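INFO batch 0412 | record 1 of 1 | parsing
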Amino acid sequence: MDAAGEELADRVRALLTVDTEIEEKRMFGTRAFLLDGHILVGARKGGVLLVRVDDEHGASLLTRAGVATAVMGPRTMGSGWLDVSPAALLTDDDLAFWLDVARGDADHPG
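INFO prediction complete | emitting tokens
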């Protein structure tokens, strides 16, 4: 992973330290943060945040600036996997919003 991805992983780690249930693993070139064995978010190359959401909210979240359906290798993932660009993660509040989305704690746009 590159420096931007490592920096994002550090930011995610800092915001998730209060949650002792989070496990961190390297998976598919991503620094993944897991809850109950399932990917919650991942820090990717270029400082892109991979976010796992339920399919129901994925489509509405795609309307936000800097959000796209995740692509892994040649495969475009389903609406439950989002890539959030570094431009949408400028502040810790921005990042915290996406961590809450992944945990199902945030209000989703309708």
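INFO post-check: The chain has one domain: 3-103.
INFO record closed
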